[in-house]
Amino acid sequence: MLSDIEISRQTKSSPISEIANKLGIEPSELSLFGDTKAKIRLSVLDRLQGNLEGKLVIVTAVTPTPFGEGKTVTSIGLTQGLNAIGKRATACIRQPSMGPVFGIKGGAAGGGYAQVVPMEELNLHLTGDIHAVSSAHNLATAAIDACLFHESRLSREEYIAQSGSEPLNIDPKQILWRRVVDHNERSLRNISVGIGGNNGPVHDSGFDITAASELMAILALSRDLQDMRRRIGRLILALDTQGKPITAEDVGVAGAMTVIMRDAIEPTLMQTLTGDPCLIHAGPFANIAHGNSSIIADRIALKLSDFVVTEAGFGSDMGFEKFCNIKVRESGRAPDAAVVVVTLKALKANSGQESAKDINDQDMPRLQSGFANLKWHIDNVSQYGVPVVVAINRFPTDTQEELQWLKGAVAETSAFGCEISDAFCEGASGAEALARAVVSATEQASEFKFLYPLDVSLEAKLMTIAEAGYGAKGIALTPEARQQLNQIKAMGLDGLGICVAKTPLSICHDPKVKGIPTDFELPITQFKINAGAGFITALVGKVMTMPGLSVRPGYRNIDINQQDEIVGLA
Amino acid sequence: MLSDIEISRQTKSSPISEIANKLGIEPSELSLFGDTKAKIRLSVLDRLQGNLEGKLVIVTAVTPTPFGEGKTVTSIGLTQGLNAIGKRATACIRQPSMGPVFGIKGGAAGGGYAQVVPMEELNLHLTGDIHAVSSAHNLATAAIDACLFHESRLSREEYIAQSGSEPLNIDPKQILWRRVVDHNERSLRNISVGIGGNNGPVHDSGFDITAASELMAILALSRDLQDMRRRIGRLILALDTQGKPITAEDVGVAGAMTVIMRDAIEPTLMQTLTGDPCLIHAGPFANIAHGNSSIIADRIALKLSDFVVTEAGFGSDMGFEKFCNIKVRESGRAPDAAVVVVTLKALKANSGQESAKDINDQDMPRLQSGFANLKWHIDNVSQYGVPVVVAINRFPTDTQEELQWLKGAVAETSAFGCEISDAFCEGASGAEALARAVVSATEQASEFKFLYPLDVSLEAKLMTIAEAGYGAKGIALTPEARQQLNQIKAMGLDGLGICVAKTPLSICHDPKVKGIPTDFELPITQFKINAGAGFITALVGKVMTMPGLSVRPGYRNIDINQQDEIVGLA
After folding, report:
1. Contact status of A258 with chain B (Cβ, < 8 Å)
2. Chain A residue with the nearest C-alpha to that of B32
3. GO:BP terms for this protein (chains A, B) (predicted)?
């Protein structure tokens, strides 16, 4: 079989203006970025106000493993399959971060014959949204550090006279806003800044990868530009010497940050290998943030399609939970069906069992043991009142006996259906059966339920996520977390939602615990206020917000050849 | 009179595809970025290989003052004026840095009725080239720091086994490659990185503004993508423990950096207020780098226009000198005429005289004293064999007596002509007289001369710039600079050109010395190897490579209004 980039390049795709036209977007609503990408102006939403909305399908998965479950392949393949059976379907996915592209993970355009094309455009700058988020984020840091600098060198009277405003009295030990860069940059995790005469005061800082910026979550959750402006104004950048929050509005930088992100609020239209529309917009991480693409992209796609397929990060305990309890609450739009992606390899790995056999070989005991993880995710999704279709993402090494057993086992669960997806090798035709099952699932009567109401305490909300969302016995707060919780309540933010930042590699907090963890308390080590995004992040242990480059990093393979083409992008 | 952004917004401009068509670019050679911007594919150069080239006009100025001389206004106005008198003229200018846009300087789109439109597109992300430079630059830093990290934790044998390559033996005290961000970020000038367990080793680093990146100079000097790839491979990132240079090629990151900058190599087409083509490409600083827009943009524009107007940063001792001795040497294309921009205010300020009168008031003694600075710049340009036209950028407060005297004084110099430019208030018609004078100047027989040959020692080249370029008696090297010079010679780089990094605010090294400095030695404090760009930078005292935000920064005025329009961008 050809490599992803070879398939991407050998496929003759249509000019993006034709894709837009087919989707029902008018030329005046489109900003072309070359022939393969276009931004969609938000004015389209005014024009389409009266349109009925299509069905919303969310793609989630079992607990992730190092083998990759193929969630994006399945999302893109399902979109291709739905179009193949005569439904107008659009995919809505996140913009990949460039850091992992040059690190180890590679791109995020799907793969095989289920890809967004051209994959190198998706995986590199796209239309610049991540750069805009980085730039807006770092302007806020520059602003707060400049205030700190001028406040430290001037008396209150001088400061007022020269700046025309009151000093903010920033506490240099309480600067909450870090910096971001879209690279895997281990050595920037913790830094000391302001060194050298007249650059200070010296203080601690550090960089996260841009996908972990609160601004990325804001981009994904905003309904329009004015909403984004208000959210940016609410961002808490630091505390003053009295412990009071200093917002981006207080610093006077919220307007300029919004201006930097003005174009980023428009989703980018691309296409699948079979010419189906795909909206790429926002890329918040699913560990530290809510891990879902934008509300605006979903809204536009729903007005123009019979089916919208979107993807939530990691397993259903992570991105799907946050889709339901954070994104749906902001968008007002619940999903009509969910697809849980699984592979035989993932179940074997999730069994937690050691085996002498290669993971690609038939191994019924390990498969049967690992099935518990899939069942857990089916039940987890079902409790939201959303019909579940299991998609078995087939690999060439899968045996008929294994596949048959798995389909039979799923038939005993609460899942509405189960189909094998061959989208990677076969493209649209390999996903037609899955597409039919998804269509049927969305025709079921369903009633969406949030896991928790907003009008209970943060602690109660967190308890519900831990218990109903992960099967924990309860939660355990460190003294630091307890103190932060009190501080958050004192700020009047008790009514916000909760975003749990934990490992995606287990249903519980411990990545080593496979299968279905039982008899555990969820340990909360820290809270992080995301007043702009509109949630409080509860950190469970150490959560990585800045990846590092490995000793054999991906960038080494990437180059241009003598024909000026990109090579080595995976 | 309306503000710049009001004028920009009230002007009905043509779709950029029409501007491209008028210029002679085929649709297949264009990547649209919305309706107002487009990138031009380099394949246009192959198609136009046989075309004759137009005339190249370079716009420079007297020694800059805080009042602003209006060099971009004059460049854009002259382009408008040339088109108004029936010549096909294209402007080639640098992409403005976003840092100063949110800092104090404001944008760089020209002003009044001589602007590139839409000014907010030019001043913000444009088509993402600066972001691409930042990203490629910082990937190299991430790569070198990752190597350092893995080399420090692994034995040589482990490193080879895991990475598949030999360790580089990076000296952590000799990492020459810093980081960049496109913001005014004082607190990032000197930082300490790698802090905290398993992120290290801890070492010094710091950020420059992206315009100061060597990659920006490379972008401006490359002839095509393969040339850029070779230059990036030559970049020296660090020294090893034996003092030997470690290049981007050695680190294996040069290909990926080129891939990140693959689209950035295409110039961006915009238009003036009167619909004349304008190519925006690259933005190297004129203090630390060579301060001129790209060779590629000039090449394309020359093939398609009768006249190409381009601008060099700061006074003629800075950007113009580097245009001639660095850019022309790489492009092989000498200018046919130069415009020296002057204002009455600039001459008064350059007189160095104190006066009780307001700078806007008529003040013949101060004007006459300051004239020496203009005469110096005329003579400086003339020594390159390039005909000079003086453009007096008129302000409403200028008196007839002052203007008449100045025109008379210029007539006594070696300048070919002198005209008043009213482009700011009048647009194209205000620059027609200037345009006619420039056309005549380019019809003169002229013979371009470099200031120095490349095949003499770096010291001899530097001596010539100091003496013939600034009027110094000679140069004085600090012991550190002397040692670096020996090191550079030992690396076999003695044949490169010289880029002097000095203050633009005086012809000499001391910004306080106005008029024509005499009887001084040029003190060289440091050398910086720019092996990728292809020159050695000689630093004269401290040169700022990272601006700071003032106590009353520009970002405070910038916002979106209720109609989603940008306000406050100057």
Report:
1. yes
2. A34
3. tetrahydrofolate interconversion
Task: For chain A, positions 9-38, list CB contacts with chain B under 8 A.
Answer: 31-35
CB of A85 within 8 Å of a chain B CB? The answer is no
Which residue range(s) make up the domain with A249? 129-260
SS3 A73: helix
Interface contact A262-B566, CB threshold 8 A: yes
Q: In what order do the strands lie in the sheet with A203-205?
A: A203-205, A191-193, B191-193, B203-205
Summarised one tens digit per residue, pLDDT across range A297-350 is 999 999 999 999 999 999 999 999 999 999 999 999 999 999 999 999 999 999
Residue A107 has pLDDT above 70, yes or no: no
**Number of structural domains found in chain A:** 3
Give the tens place of pLDDT for each residue, B286-299: 888 899 999 999 99
- For chain B, give me the number of helices (H) and strands (E)? 23, 26
Q: How far is B59 from chain A (nearest CA, A)?
A: 31
B163: tokens are 């990475």
**Per the domain annotation, does A544 fall within a domain?**
no
In chain B, the residue whose alpha carbon lies closest to the alpha carbon of A29 is B34
- Is the full-model pTM beyond 0.90? yes
Decide if A142 touches B, using CB distance below 8 A.
yes
- Give the span between the Cα atoms of B176 and B171, in whole angstroms: 10
* B360 to chain A, closest Cα gap in Å: 25
Q: Which of A417, A442, A467 is the last residue of a domain?
A: A442
**Rounded to a whole number, what is the distance in Å from the CA of A256 to chain B's nearest CA?**
5
DSSP lists the bridge partners of residue A269 as: A38, A279
Average of per-residue pLDDT values in chain B: 95
Kind of pairing between the strands at A337-342 and A388-393: parallel
Q: How many residues does chain B have?
A: 570
pLDDT value for A1: 81
> Which tens digit of pLDDT belongs to each residue from A138-176?
999 999 999 999 999 999 999 999 999 999 999 999 999
Question: Does any CB of chain A come closer than 8 Å to the CB of residue B161?
Answer: no
Q: Which residues of B touch A145 (CB under 8 A)?
A: 185-187
Residues B277 and B421 in one domain: yes
